[in-house]
Amino acid sequence: MDNSSERDVKVSKNYQKNIDYLNRELGVPDNFDIVLREMSIAGKKVAIYSVNGMVNTEVVSIILDALIDLERPDLVVNALQTLVKGRIVGLQVSEVDTMDKILYFILSGPMAFFVEGQEKAIIVDARSFPSRSPDEPDIERVTRGARDGFTETLIFNTALIRRRLRDPKLRMKLMQVGGRSKTDVCVAYIEDITNEQLVNEITEEIQKIKIDGIPMAEKSVEEFILGSKIWNPYPRVRYTERPDVAAVHLLEGHVVVLVDTSPSVMIAPATFWSHTQHAEEYRQEPIVGAYMRWVRFMGIFAALFLLPLWLACALNPHILPEWIRFVGVEKIGKIGLVPQVFLAEFGVDLVRMAAIHTPGPLTVALGLIATFMIGDVAIKVGLFSQEIIVYIAVVTVGTFATPSYELAQANRLARLFLIAMVALNNFIGFVIGALVLFFLLWRTKSFGVPYLWPLLPLDLKALGTVLVRSPLPIKNKRPSILKPKDAIRQPEGHDE
To answer: Coiled coil where (predicted)?
Structure first.
């Protein structure tokens, strides 16, 4: 049966017809985790469908105890109303009359009740999802501040945001994506702040997604709504696992997209500078936060430009002024500098990937092996020069200091591109490569927002908030590039 005909199937008054249809669609009894319980309540047949492991067994027992006490006269007139309003209390209950919606609800966790002679089913939300506690995200740790983070359960994530934003204008628009997976996708925004056109654009793009499933969750959604440009590695949305970061962006006028089964939420739109900020900066005094931000800027700059620039200098020591020639290489080694740089880059990436796939107790041993073999032995046998190891170490630290993992990966590819350009044409190649990267960033947009804003187009006031972590009492305007409905966050008097 195709999807169009399935959507037309209505709940029948014929009890057995309903049961046969659902048993066929859900694979009962072949699917061991689909639970069908049939019983007689007040002289009427009742069937209850649920997914094993996704319902709260204690709540189910309370519901069944309440239903068993019903007498036949109770279900003679308005049987559904008696069940829904009279007996099942304290839970979210709804009536559904189409089979496709019933299948969606059953496979999402709620229970479905079918009563003999009724043309509607009762959906009771007694879900109890398998989940972990909202622990602090590993890649967004702070020394002080909240320790909770998003989990793989959508309803938990929306609750974590609601806890921080008790605004009746906060909207959580739920959609389903995937013809087979029926994955829940939530678009969150504040109605009287966020630009309506931005909300509509993101919502419409999500609704246009036609695919069997999105097991890769938020990344799959991103590629559909933004388009996957294989030649551009830079992330056009920001990901976070911190509820406080998501709440801050909602207050600024951004849209947050949450996908069930993923602990990462998508923040849109995003600029290059969005990926360079970290929650830690706002947990310290403004001057401390500003210092940390500038140190982080230097780390990102070093991760991108230091190694290719050093390689250009090392390959052309004769054109360097006397005072800077110390950056060269005393002893090149048995292979050329360019192969050494590429080997070192690939070696660091290999160790990083190995560390991800290595069990926790063995990561220390992996680190020692990598340090000994790449750092010490490789220098002694002449495979690498000492300078290569030093600069690779600095670049790696700068990469790890980048708050956004996606930006760090993009900068790694950009650095390899610059190294290749230097290998082809020395300093001229470096300049050309840097201009190509600048042009790429200049042309990149995220939902119509220029990627380099507020640098290009220039917005001096907004640029100041990027370069310096300003005190919160003087941040009374939302980012103008988002075109928020309400641009004022607090009265102007707080400027003083």
So the answer is: none
| Judgement on whether residues 303 and 247 belong to the same structural domain of the protein | no
Beta strands in 33-108 (DSSP E): 34-41, 44-51, 92-96
Instruction: Please check whether residues 317 and 394 belong to one and the same domain.
Output: yes
CB atoms within 10 A of CB 293: 20
The kind and range of the H/E element at 392 are: helix 386-401
Alpha-carbon dihedral sign for residues 410, 411, 416, 421: positive
Cβ proximity of 139 and 253 under 8 Å: no
CA distance 410 to 113: 51
Structural domain count, the chain: 3
Q: Where are the beta strands (DSSP E) in 365-469?
A: 445-446, 449-450
438 is a domain residue: yes
**Residue 370 sits in the same domain as residue 433:** yes
Percentages of the chain per state (helix, strand, coil), in multiples of 5: 50, 15, 35
* 235 three-state secondary structure: coil
Which residues, other chains included, contact 433 with Cβ-Cβ below 8 Å and sequence gap of 6+?
308, 417, 418, 420, 421, 422
Distance CA 222, CA 409 (A): 17
pLDDT digits (tens), the chain, 496 positions:
444 444 568 999 899 999 999 999 999 988 888 999 998 877 788 899 999 888 887 778 877 777 776 666 655 556 556 665 566 666 778 889 999 999 989 988 899 989 888 888 988 888 877 667 888 888 888 888 888 899 988 988 999 999 999 999 999 999 999 888 889 999 999 999 999 999 999 999 999 999 998 888 888 899 899 876 778 899 999 999 999 999 999 999 999 999 998 999 999 999 999 999 998 888 889 899 999 999 999 999 999 999 999 999 888 888 877 777 777 776 676 788 899 899 889 888 888 888 777 776 666 666 666 666 666 666 676 677 788 888 888 999 999 999 999 999 999 999 999 999 999 998 999 999 999 999 999 999 999 999 999 999 999 988 988 988 888 888 888 999 999 999 888 876 444 4
Angle at 466 between CA 494 and CA 451, to 5 degrees: 130
Sequence-distant (6+) residues with CB within 8 A of 242 are: 137, 140, 146, 149, 150, 279
Does this model's pTM top 0.70? My answer is yes
Which amino acid does the sequence have at 437? L
CA distance 381 to 393: 19
CA 345 to CA 81: how far, in whole Å? 68
